[in-house]
Amino acid sequence: MTPLRRDLLVTVILVVLAATVPYLTSTRYIVTQTTLFFIWAIVVTQWNLVLGVAGIFSLAQMALFAAGAYTTAMLGYYWGVPIALAMLAAAIIVVILSVIIGLACLRLRGPYVALLTLAIAQMLYLLIVNDTDCFTNPPSGCMPLFGGVRGISRFGDLGFRALLGSKWYIAHYYLGLVLLALAIIVSIVIIRGPLGLAFQALRDNPGYAMSRGISRFKYQLWVFAVSAFFTGLAGGFYAAQFAVVGPTVFSLSQLLLLLSMMVVGGLGRIWGPVLGALLLMLADEGVRELGDWRDIGLGLILILFVVPFRRGLTGAFEDLWRRLRPGKSLTAAGS
């Protein structure tokens, strides 16, 4: 079995197992937290394409996620666009934004890309929190264009509340699962195909790759656009799930948590971000009651994983597999 078919088969098996969760538990909290896991897993799976596979140290992913959430909320609130259509439109707008960011980063590498993308995210955050001028005057009071510090709410929903009543969150669960499955399948096809090879060549030896005719301009914009589509879609789904969007989606602590998910799971590998997202969300639940000690607890957990497993948990599994099967070899990237 080829690695592509193997990974697609694993995806199908995991999706089928995940589809049984709402039938195995009647606890709403578990279902909604798993839905949140789907959202973050989509983000880190796509961020992994940019950072882990293509080697572009972009920190703009949360800004793209926030842009998807805000665009969905604003389309629903100001123009009454159905949320499903608003999510799709938001994803397309986020792709355009990501291409602009990609063009700005073309002449930069390494920490300079990180600084530029982080500055763009901070600029968007300041634009929103400092937006205090009234754009409309609903009965609830002055409403800035971007909602200001209080954010935007009452912009509609996906219609499952009216259709299913108190069980609407189960429909959201399955929608999130479908979106994650699509994001993983796209990630697998890219990493296992010619695009993945081109991204990895530009990451590992850009000079040689470009001398062989691989265009850095073309492929960098490709990876920015593909990852941005699902990131924007995840942002729109986040808005629909929580029915409110505010500046907290730009949180630096959330960005660092998502970055940690990729590092713990294994950068550049297909299942690394998903595994890291699962483990760190479980760890976050475990330290949630610690209050001010929560961030310290997460930091200690991160150290305990990163120090012994420098290539992430998937890298550790690869090493273990090689020891158990010395006559076999695994592909280092994407396994």
UniProtKB/TrEMBL annotation:
Pfam families noted in UniProt: BPD_transp_2 (PF02653)
GO CC aspect terms: plasma membrane
InterPro entries: ABC_transp_permease (IPR001851), LivM-like (IPR043428)
UniProt keyword list: Cell membrane, Membrane, Transmembrane, Transmembrane helix
Cellular compartment(s): Cell membrane
Keyword Membrane part of the UniProt annotation: yes
CDD domains attached to this UniProt entry: TM_PBP1_LivM_like
GO molecular function: branched-chain amino acid transmembrane transporter activity
TM helices/strands, residue ranges: 37-57, 85-105, 112-129, 173-199, 219-243, 255-283
Membrane topology term: Multi-pass membrane protein
Name of the protein in question: Branched-chain amino acid ABC transporter permease
Species of the source: Hypericibacter terrae
